[in-house]
User: Fold these one by one.
Assistant:
Number 1:
Amino acid sequence: MKIATWNINGVKARIDTALAWIKEASPDIACLQEIKSVDEGFPTSAFEDLGYNVATHGQKGFNGVALLSKLPFDEVNRGLPGDDADEHARFIEGVFSVESGALRVVSLYLPNGNPIDTPKFSYKLAWMERLRVWAAERLAFEEPLVLAGDYNVIAEPRDAKDPSLWVNDALYQPETRKAFRAIETLGLTDALRATTDEDGLYTFWDYQAGAFQKNNGIRIDHLLLSPQAADRLVSVGIDKHVRGWDKPSDHVPVHVELRI
């Protein structure tokens, strides 16, 4: 089974790119972030025509996450628990029936957190703590779980072409990386780092200053796997070539293959 994640940076602006990638990559489940669309405005039928079931948690103009699945949804949960006042559409969980039982897949769009001297950074850290609590509860089910999305976290120096450019950025703050490690140490596996120690593997390149052409990127799109999912890990890939297509997102898709 192929499970992919992609911050699409506006589904309406990238619909042609999205459909082209879906046809090429044919993921069994695709997790989209930053769809920038309300639920009723999402181009559901375009993906249904390609054989996908669609679940969204949208918001007008920004944020928004979605799940596209060849499998039917047994359950869909929208919104990260822990703060009833949080209206940001950043989290959606799908539950699917597979031969081994239940498979849980999350599409998440973690807050950016900049500038770091504002409440936006505090919101980022609080959101990460809510995610840690939620993940601990789900891990107790001992099921294959994939937490996929744009984490807005540069976890290690090798996840940036030039780490010095990010020392004052919320994505690379010590508190951010510590919070990410706290989530990982629950027993989650960074799928990419489980398969390679190679440097220069990035998922985001800014639109400015020829960043993509210079490979001046960062790796902030991650798939974290529960032990039951990690045991089934076959491969991980980054669809870097999509960044060179017309009207690209500044992120590219990342995918895992699991024996499910």
Number 2:
Amino acid sequence: MTKPPKKKARDPDAFKSILTRMNVDGWRALRVLAAERDTTLNALALEALNDLLRKYGKRTVIENPLLGD
């Protein structure tokens, strides 16, 4: 069985979005952390989601399609 070709970042189905809500203090703390690490909130979220997969013994397969090919 062959794998389907990897989608490019600009393909409409290349990625899915998550909308989440949080309190203002949490939002500010994450913005500060992102600034301190010179990264984005999106990058922090992807890192956290991969950490969650790892915690439950799953492969860390989440990637930012905008940083790909």
Number 3:
Amino acid sequence: MTMTAHAILPSRNEDYGFFQTLTNCPQRERRSAEVWTLASRLIAAAVSADTEDEMIGIRDFLDSRMGRHFADDVVGNMTGCNIDCETAINAAIRRWQGWRISKRTEREEGIPAGLPYLTGWVQHFAITAAMADAD
């Protein structure tokens, strides 16, 4: 896994998504902004993000409903397994990368079936943001 050279983008939705879910987690041992940066870096490495658009996709994924679900997985790892944020995020990444995008998700969201789940959602948000910028 290579780490991205692109900047980690701050949340644009601290009242929802990943940021809010982790903010409300008493088990986190770091400030919310630090957990956000850590998650963004680890996801970037896991999905081999190497463009600014992909970094936007990571930010938008984490800010979304899917980011909240990802955060629920991270919090569940921290509370259920009594582990730190980094270990919990890595465990969630492994789980999400182990799942595959279904034919139903492909029909509903346009993400190609068979892609690793996390990669597919990050790419979905990257493409959505790029299309919005083009308008």
